[in-house]
Amino acid sequence: MADVHNSKVRSYNMSRIKNSDTKPEMIIRKYLHAKGFRYKINDKRLPGKPDLVFTAIKTALFVNGCFWHGHSDCRYYVVPKSRTEFWLNKISKNRANDEKVMFLLRELGWNVIVIWECDLKPLKGNLL
Ligand SMILES: [Zn+2]
Question: Whole-model pTM?
Fold first, then answer.
C-alpha cells in the first residue's frame, strides 16, 4: 500500500497530527448554528462525549477526523510510513472505542450521526 501516498496527502495527515484543533467540527457548528439549531458541545454525561448533542431530539453528532478514526477507503486515511505499528495500534483503538460509544448511545435510545471530515471538503467554500 506504500506507493499510493503522494506527498500532498502525507503532509495533510501530518498537519492533522500536529494540529489537533478540530476545524471540521467548527464548520459544522457554525453551519448548524446559522440554521437555528442549538446544541450542547462535548456533553460529558453521554458516552464518548459527543461533539454536538441535540437534547430535544435525542441526537448525538460526531465529527470524525478521517485519520484519527481510520475512515476506511478514504484518501485522508493514510497510515504514516514511520512508526506504522504505533499508528495502526492507536487508530484501531480509536475505532474500537467509536464502536463501543455508538453501541452505548443507541442502547440509551439516542440517535447517532457521524460526519466524516472528508464529507465536508466540498462544502467548505459554501459554508464559511
Ligand atoms: Zn474520510
Answer: 0.76
